[in-house]
Amino acid sequence: MAGGAALEAEAEGAGDARSPSYATTVMARFARNRFAMFGGRAVLALVLLATIAPVLALNQPFYWNAGQGPELPWLAALFNRLLFENAIDLLFNLLLVAALPAALVIRIVRRWRPGVSLGRAWLGASALVGALFVCASIEAVGSLKNPLHFTERVVNYRSERERLAVLGVEPSAWFPLVPYSYRETDPQSSLRGPSTEHWLGTDAEGRDVFCRMLYGTRISLTIGLVAVSIYVTIGTILGALAGYFGGWVDNLISRLVEIMITFPSFFLILTLAALIQDRSIFHVMLIIGLTSWTGVARLVRAEFLRQKGLDYVQAALALGLSPRRVIFGHILPNAIAPALVAATFGVATAILTESSLSFLGVGDLSVASWGETLSAGRVQQKAWLVLAPGAAIFFVVTIFNLVGEGVRDALDPKLRR
Amino acid sequence: MIPTFFGISLIVFIVLNLAPGRPGAEGEAGDVAISARGEQTQDSYRIFREQFDLDKPVLLNTRPWLTTDEVRRDLEVAAELTPASIVLRIAAQERLGDLGAYAVPHLMAVLDAADAAGQLRLRDTAVFFLGPSSPRRLIDPFNPVPGPALRAYNDAVTAERGVLGSLRYGFDAPEVEKRRVIAGWREWYAGAKRRFEYRPFEKLRLLVTDTRFAKYWSNLLRLDFGISLTTRQPVFSTLVSKLKYSMSLSLGSLALAYLLAIPLGVVSAVRKDTRLDRVITVLLFMLHSLPSFFVATLLLLTLSRASSWQALRLFPTGGFQSSNFGELSSWDRLGDVIWHLALPVACLTYGSLAALSRYTRTGLLEVLGADYIRTARAKGLPERIVIGKHALRNSLLPIITLLANLLPAVLGGSVVIEYIFGIPGIGQWTIDSIHGRDYNVIMGVQLVTTVLVLFGMLLADVGYAAADPRIRYR
Q1: Which of A40, A224, A238, A250 would disulfide-bridge A347, Cβ 3.0–4.6 Å?
Q2: Out of A261, A267, A348, whose CB is closest to B445?
Q3: Chain B CB within 8 Å of residue A18 CB
Q4: Which pLDDT tens digit goes with each residue over A63-75?
């Protein structure tokens, strides 16, 4: 419904010709909103948390030496499909390996030579990091005995350590803060309450709940981003075409929108999900994306209808530009603001929808989805299994709604009451 | 509204045809082992295909013009007489299975020709495909009061099915047995031959009527959504009987939402920018972000009989009514239902409060600055009358239109709530059907809920016209 409120949001065009650019004024207005800034910072923190999840929690030690030479199981595990089956995890791991060091290098370079442009610094840093990574791998492969440990099976280093301890060998091992993996089941310790060993307890299969919450952040953020990107793209294109061309195009698209809003969207999503055999998390994203574009289409269409008559559009047409350039190059940048507001709220809605789906057992059961843990908590009647994912969903939805409100107020201060 | 309904049905039709990732070929259509998905999936998929005629061509049916050569070619591929990849072979088998009755005369022709030429493998394959293709379908099998003609026809079909069902043999059966079965087929075909001969006009009729599209529409207009896999009952009647649970939940929640949100909106508009206004805004904002399934689970854990605190066991753990519902007096029945629905309705309602009260507040603030409000105040009316009578009536108009937006959301939200509280409505049924791969139910629920929303929108329009004398529909 928040998107509905955004329907009223009228983007203030770039009409005011004061010196700072439109983007700067909007950013400044956003920064003045305390709640929105909190939301924005929280979102950034979540992205960071999702990226560095393996640093905080993984059942592979960073460094392992049991007297048979040093090993680096953690680094090898990052791209081991036995540990990280899902493409989302692999993507975030890639981000972890490449982007964070690159960002560090950029900081250092910019402190050193402040004049360097961001793009060039980024390129240089990425190249440097990539080269370093390759060199490190080759060096490591050459000098250590199978250091990256690219094996077909996953060694459980915790039980390995216990086994060695019985033999009187004390291996030197540096584990992450939480030495579990989100898929690692342990029937011995199922349904344990929160303790120092398992911070948020374990679920029925003995999987560490904290770990699942942490990796669930990746799923939620990706769902929000991808699903919303899909429907903003569809909605923007359809809305732009309808608003710009009018006539039968508008008629057709408007009827289509009317039809789509009549479907109770959750039933439609459920139906589509039911008809897909072997759903993956990407199917879920696609379904949410394909069913939620109507709001954006209506907003963009309304903006286009208004902008179409303005002088700058006439000028662009008089220059003989093609409709494609007028639509996407000239009008769209001025008409996209309400869609952006809707998209920010949409991220929250998409995350909610995905967790509802996995709560009902209709999502992708192989990923660490918060909804799935909550569902387990309902079945097992265990409070910690309900509270942890519920709080996580609540937090993420709240911060995206806060950012959405901030963006809306920043784009249209008139709406603030 | 009619065009919208047409569009909705068209979209559902498209979904139906793009859907499901086919669980392999037909259960009977060949020896390819695709049974990894299990018996039940195969079964449900077959029922689904029958209901929506997924074995038929989509728009135009050219099968009355089928030639024996085409059937023979597919048979040869299916019988592994011509070298072909496994994919092509499965496709040929599926095609033969889909052709149904149209293939029967050609199968008989191939059977005779192959028998004469001594091509035993081809002959046996033809007999194999005759099995599922030859029987007629029952008409309206769930009619509780069939007419004599209908009953006679269905009895004849059932009897014929029994005979045809016995006319089959394994590929390694003794030749004598095969001869006997083939003789049986020839005898049956001599009697039933006329059924498979089409006059030119009839062919043209079949060209457009015996298609997925036409069948889909005729099913839709007859409100025939097929049978449910689990109960073997018609989907539509079950749906209607379950509608009362879902509707009392949804409508109850909508009514409660309006009852609560309007006063909240009025208070925060009248006390604009006070601490009360801010508290209401923040509270509703947080409620809006709270996932309903989380709250529902939590409430069940704390306030229901499952609670670990004795004093808090106030509500039932779920269901729509108590087990002794039949013995209660009518007032007690109402009380019992309300007692059962209190938690579910609360969970379904709080999420829509934020939007509704926000709209009320905005609408009221807009109106409060108007001249006629100042006039009303100037002539000394009490504030209560000014707000309640002059301002509120005008500011409520947008709220009525919001009903059209809320209804799909509430209906969708009720799925999760019904699931958690074990209310046997359509939402719960949908979830069960998804897990049981009961596609007919899923499609039926989809169509019916959409039509419900359509009616809700119509109602909102009518309500708007009733509330605003400036709007007249001509």
Answers
A1: A224
A2: A267
A3: no
A4: 888 877 788 888 8
pLDDT at A45: 95
Say if A2 falls within a structural domain. no
Nearest CA in chain A to B278: A417
A267/B415 touch (CB, cutoff 8 Å), yes or no = yes
Q: Does B307 touch chain A (CB under 8 A)?
A: no
pLDDT score at B473: 63
Report whether B46 contacts B94 (CB < 8 A).
no
Tell me how far apart the 2 most distant CA atoms of chain B are, in Å: 108
HSE of B107, CA atoms in CB hemisphere, 13 A: 26
B422 torsion bin: left (phi>0), alpha (psi -120 to 50), beta (else): left
Chain A residues whose beta carbon lies within 8 Å of the beta carbon of residue B48: none
- Report the candidate in B473, B342, B359, B468 with the shortest Cα–Cα distance to residue B406: B359
Fold of the domain built from segment(s) B235-467: MetI-like fold (1.10.3720)
Residues of chain A positioned with their CB less than 8 A from the CB of B442: 270-271, 274-275
The answer to whether the CB of B441 falls within 8 A of the CB of B48 is no
pLDDT at residue A284 is higher than 80: yes
Please enumerate in sequence order all residues whose Cβ is within 8 A of that of B308, keeping only pairs 6 or more positions apart, or say none: none
Res B318: pLDDT: 79
Q: Within a 13 Å sphere around the CA of B36, how many CA atoms are in the beta-carbon half?
A: 7
- Shortest distance between the Cα of A347 and any Cα of chain B, in A, equals 12
| Mean pLDDT to the nearest integer, A300-327 | 92
For chain B, domain boundaries: 25-220, 235-467
The interface residues of chain B toward chain A in range 282-301, judged by CB-CB distance below 8 A, are 285-286, 288-291, 293-294, 297-298, 300-301
| SS3 labels along B39-87 | HHHHHHHHHHHHHCCCCCCCCCCCHHHCCHHHHHHHHHHHCCCCCCCHH
pLDDT value at residue A84: 80
Contact B298 A390 (CB under 8 A): yes
Evaluate whether residue A215 is within a structural domain. Answer: yes
CA closest to B37 among chain A residues: A277
Distances (CA, A) of A223 to A279, A289, B46, B181, B358: 14, 10, 34, 59, 28
Q: In chain B, what percentage of residues exceed pLDDT 70?
A: 94
State both tokens at A105. 């290098």
Q: CATH number of the domain that A276 lies in?
A: 1.10.3720.10
For the segment B205-209, the average pLDDT, to the nearest whole number, is 82
User: What part of A 101-160 touches B (C-beta under 8 Å)?
Assistant: none
Examine residue A198 and state whether it is found in any structural domain, yes or no. Answer: no
Find chain B residues with C-beta within 8 A of A401's C-beta: 285, 288-289
The gap from C-alpha B33 to its chain's centroid, in whole angstroms, comes to 30
Chain B contact for A270, CB < 8 A? yes
- pTM for this prediction: 0.83
Q: Residue B306 has what pLDDT?
A: 73
Q: Is the pLDDT of residue B31 over 80?
A: no
Alpha-carbon gap: A261 to the closest alpha carbon of chain B (Å):
8
Q: Which domain holds residue A272?
A: 209-415
Distance from C-alpha of B410 to C-alpha of B416, rounded to nearest angstrom: 10
B449 at interface of A, judged by CB pairs closer than 8 A: yes
- CA separation, residue A246 to residues A120, A239, A308 (Å): 43, 10, 10
- Length reported for chain B: 474
Straight-line distance from the first to the last Cα atom of chain B, in angstroms, rounded to the nearest whole number = 15
Number of structural domains (chain A) is 1
pLDDT confidence tier of residue A3, bands split at 50, 70 and 90 = very low
Q: Please indicate if any CB of chain A lies within 8 Å of the CB of B402.
A: yes
Closest Cβ–Cβ partner in A265, A374, A381 for B412: A265
User: Could you give the CA distance from residue A174 to residue A339 in angstroms, rounded to a whole number?
Assistant: 47
Determine which helix (DSSP H) or strand (DSSP E) holds B266, and give its type and residue range: helix B235-270
Selected residues 351-370 of chain A with any CB under 8 Å from a CB in chain B: 352, 355-356, 359-362
